[in-house]
Amino acid sequence: MSGSKRILGKGRLTPAKTARFTFDGKTYTALAGDTVASALLAHDIHLIGRSFKYHRPRGFLSAGPEEPNALLDISRDKAHRQPNVRATVQEVFDGMHSESQNRWPSLSFDIGAVNDLFSPFFGAGFYYKTFMWPRKAWEKVYEPIIRRAAGLGVTPTEPDPDRYAGRYEHCDVLVVGAGVAGLNAALAAARTGAKVILCDEQPEVGGALHHENGTKIDGQDGFAWAQVTAAELNAMPNVRVLTRTTAFGYYNHNFVALAERVTDHVALPEKNTARERLWQVRAKRVILANGSIERHMVFANNDRPGVMLASAARTYLNHFGVAVGSHVGVFTAHDSAYEAAFDLKNAGVDIPVIVDARAHPGEAVLVEARRLNIPVLNNHCVLSVGGKLRVKSMTVATNGAKSGRKYTIDALITSSGWTPSVHLFSQSRGKLRFDDTKQRFLPDVYAQDCICVGTCNGTDDLQAVIDEAVAAGTSAGLATGGKASATTTVSATTAYSWSGGMVGTTAGAGPDSNVKAFIDFQHDVCAKDIRNAVREGMHSIEHIKRFTTNGMASDQGKMSNMHGLAIASEALNKPIPQVGLTTFRQPYTPVTFGTLINSSRDHLFDPARQTALHQFEAQNGAVYEDVGNWKRAWYYPNAGETMHDAVSRECKTVREVAGVFDASTLGKIEVVGPDAAEFLNLMYTNAWDTLKPGRCRYGIMTGEDGFVMDDGVVGRMAHDRFHVTTTTGGAPRVLNHMEDYLQTEFPHLNVWLTSTTEQWAVIAVQGPKAREIIAPFVEGIDISNEAFPHMSVAEGKFCGVPTRLFRMSFTGELGFEINVPADYGQSVLEAVWERAKAMGACLYGTETMHILRAEKGYIIVGQDTDGTQTPHDAAVGWAVSKKKTDFVGIRGMRRPDLVAEGRKQLVGLLTKNPNTVLEEGAQIVADPNQPKPMKMLGHVTSSYWSSNLGRSIAMAVVHDGFNLHGKTLFVPMLDRVIEVEVTGPVFIDEKGERLHV
Question: Which spans in 804-870 are helix H?
Fold first, then answer.
């Protein structure tokens, strides 16, 4: 049996298809298509969990994603497990295990419920005033207890074995929500030929039609019409319909993130099928058809299991065929709850009474209530409900009275009206307006190319919703390139037109009462907590939110926010708009880490990048280091060599013979277009319009603040083409920096930017015999010193493949950098190395490269600069053009504090004991005997042992460093003080003669 509360002939599920699952260790039978909530309710189970703070018994409140109470641990086995899954969303599959959370030792007997007895001590903001004394108790007592109590559910301990997928998609029109409004908007847009994506979080389209049974659209039952319309959309080649897909984030430029649950409902998913898929959609226009969320009534003990929303009871009955009780009370301030009562009554459920807080309910629903012999009490309220683990009674009184009549019930359905779902609209940075007549916030000022339709836009009449949606869909389709089509005409009728609604507390839970009338169920926030926050001086709704935690749970206050606002408004004696509105943040509903991370985990979490020469390096004994994501050859030890021995040998060999180095990781950007030189003039400190084709120049890039952010050599390949190199770690940042300015500040320039970092393999040959090594392989380029001087570039062939050959050096020696297509990199390197090896050259790695460049005084941005150095501070002020009137950073560089005397400036350091190697990062002082805290003059940025000089060398940034050359400073260490002499940063070939041989 699928449950004693399953009503024969009701619902849309097929009784022949069943699934077995467990809840807290007991096995139950469900129908295919059941959610865990509907399946448990079919077995008359309402107790589903315990509240976070007071551990009060909780039941199902809703039938959708707004559910705050029914959070379960869902698993297939130990590895396939996820906590905090909403039972109202999770579909049952055969073999599923579900467990309640936040209770011990059992759900019906929870020791934590003792908190409810001490609730007067746990009021709103108690955590700001307690745990202060004694101070030592915090670390040993308070913090461990709080950490154990914090959170909901238990984090899985097994590695997640599931696969996750991701898709990027572009469309003309994205429609969010597949209810009446969304379906009509999508169909109208699709008929123009526009590319349309329609998404909805439910397994089937239909939205509110899941619970409706009196709606007729084009003569059909509303839900049946929705399925026919979905089938038509699915058959259209320009439409993609995504069910079980939640739009959880609306970002800039109509970028919307969708989370699709692919196999969470499948008993035996295929091994290689993704569990969830992240869709990252860029839409030309977005249509939001999110609908509305029903609000609960706020009265004493309204959190008892069995108390739920009226729309939830209708959904369980009309879609799942489940009655939520045998004797169901109704407490409402809105006509929609009457329809739930009518549906239950017609299904054979006893409705003892409808309690309406209003003096004048809708006339049409009153007429139907009388026809069905359902008593209606106008101007009444529910003072409280009885029962502990399940509601058993309700006490009803006239508004304002202190006592009343008790009714026996086993469920109570409530409705205080409907709140438009404006979460995604607010995420898009749209501005809301307050509709005072119906006490709700509605979309007003749009920040992006989107439009809201249906009840989320405040349109309540069904025919008006359809007309609005059709118009929006047609307009969106035409605006994005579609063609006019035949006019879409859809007619609809409903059984009743709704009226009414209220926000805030009912008469029995007003300011003069101290009852537990809950507004935020997940965080146990009561109406009295909001009032207490106001008394404590919290007058901004954002402060009230944080003081009480109202709306800060995983449901983000979807049902509690408006009640909280209304109660605060009453306490502050201010209109609701003046109290303010809290911020709606992404995600709309919780999203698994797996969906967001996708395949970026384990070895792919921080994927290693390898150059085209990696295999050759490994074969030749390279030891690697991580440089960002790159694996770079660090050094090449011979048999029996330590790292120090290998690096010393490499350094001497490069300066005496030659060395071969993989420089492929350097960032490379192709800057092309008629305005390329003008663009680079604006991006770099030096001039590029004077650079002739075939020549290179060292460039410095600064931010708006005037500080060095990157450097590199730029070669001019043609009048309209530049080959720009950047630091290894700076390539993405520099490209983004260039694109940002090109698109926002200099859009008038005719320039294209393309990253070519991985397209070129770069082999650097450095040293006195570099020309001799490469000469036999070069075709079409005269590499003599006269024809191809230092800082030249030319295109030709190398080993028979196309090359861009640069004459440049990062060692201070004669040097060439051979750029060849990456596919040919290893074969070219093998040829070069065969000749170089025969001539006594060596392979060298990044450690040797660092030492050689330091001997020559070349800086590394990010090591010898820390984000606060100008080009002048970094001893490369000569690279700043004195003729240019504008470039990025010019105004920052002219700030008085950036040209003042005494700034930290780059210098060289020589230890008085040549065998002492300084520690990088060590602080520098003028007087090591001064009292602490000492005045620090600067710090060591680079420090090495130079085998070529037979001593240690270092570079540092020191206050007023340029004026301290020849002075003695001190580097205090834990065990000693090291004397150093300040010098220039160049230690070898200060005149640069070796570069020009």
Answer: 825-838, 846-856
